[in-house]
Amino acid sequence: MPGAAGTIRTVSGPLCPSAVRGPVLAHEHLALDLRRPGRPAAFLDGRHEVAIVAELATLREQFGLSLVVEQTCRGMGRDVAALARVSAASGVAVVAGTGWYCAPFHPPDVRRADVGRLVEILTRDVVDGIGPARIRPGLIGEAGSHGDRPGAPERRTLTAAARTAVRTGLPVATHTRLGRGGLAQLALLTAQGLAPHRIAIGHQDLLDDPAVHRRIAAEGAYVSFDTVGKTAYQDDAARLRLLLALLDAGHADRILLSCDISRHTYLAGQGGQSYGYLFRTFLPRVRAAGVSGDVVDLMTRRNPLRFLAGPGLPGGQASATRSR
């Protein structure tokens, strides 16, 4: 079954984790369409492909960027053919996703389907591949909910995500609205038999609640600080404070970092923070706060590789959270 532990499924085929020597962006978008009234810029399409390729290629040259986990799933304007083109042109490996986002973006057929049917749909994506090129996803995500607890349609799509993950061996990455509802997601997913270490709870850098972060990590799931640079939602000083609190609590091995570029105005050429904000702006602040290079590598490379490929990879621990 695709998704067996030890390999990562990319848009160009299986990838051995040991071949990934540079950092990973654990939650990004390279092609999507989330346009709704009041959100006219919430898309990335062929008009932006050249700029996206240029950004990723530059990050590969300057920072060794090796892998992007692209979490555009069903109902979000997914375009796996575009992901394959971007990966080939930039030289950066890309993981594609499947699953369903939060309820406002569920396609009509999802609202009518039971969990069994939803599992069939996702399993077909994983086993047979997506689109004419039969590109296989490497994770289920970003599987979403919209409030403190998933609504009825979201409970069905999240349940289907968990059951498909158990069946296929893929991990599940979630979307939470402003970081809320992560514990409820974790409880629902694990109730289906999905191990916590196969789950990443999304957008936790938007939730100013260190106790929730500690609990997610203590239960064995990954805590995604994946909207780095989106200062309209959260100041980076708060992000850094929350990150350091989680590190000081001993959970360096449960942190994922990324920028969640989800509209064309975030691209560098349009004056946005770009995919490189994590490397150029945020990580220097993390290092200045006393976080060692080993921990930075853990958060940006070894953790996402273990999340994608499964447990058993070497280097899952860091010797210290911060320099003393």
From TrEMBL:
Coiled coil start-end: none
Domain of life from the UniProt record: Bacteria
Family, similarity comment: Belongs to the metallo-dependent hydrolases superfamily. Phosphotriesterase family.
Protein name: Phosphotriesterase
Keywords assigned: Hydrolase, Metal-binding
Entry-linked Pfam families: PTE
Binding site for a divalent metal cation 2: 142, 175, 203
InterPro entries: Metal_Hydrolase, Phosphotriesterase
Organism: Streptomyces morookaense (Streptoverticillium morookaense)
Gene Ontology molecular-function annotations: hydrolase activity; zinc ion binding
Cofactor: a divalent metal cation
Cofactor binding comment, as recorded: Binds 2 divalent metal cations per subunit.
Chain residues that bind a divalent metal cation 1: 27, 29, 142, 260
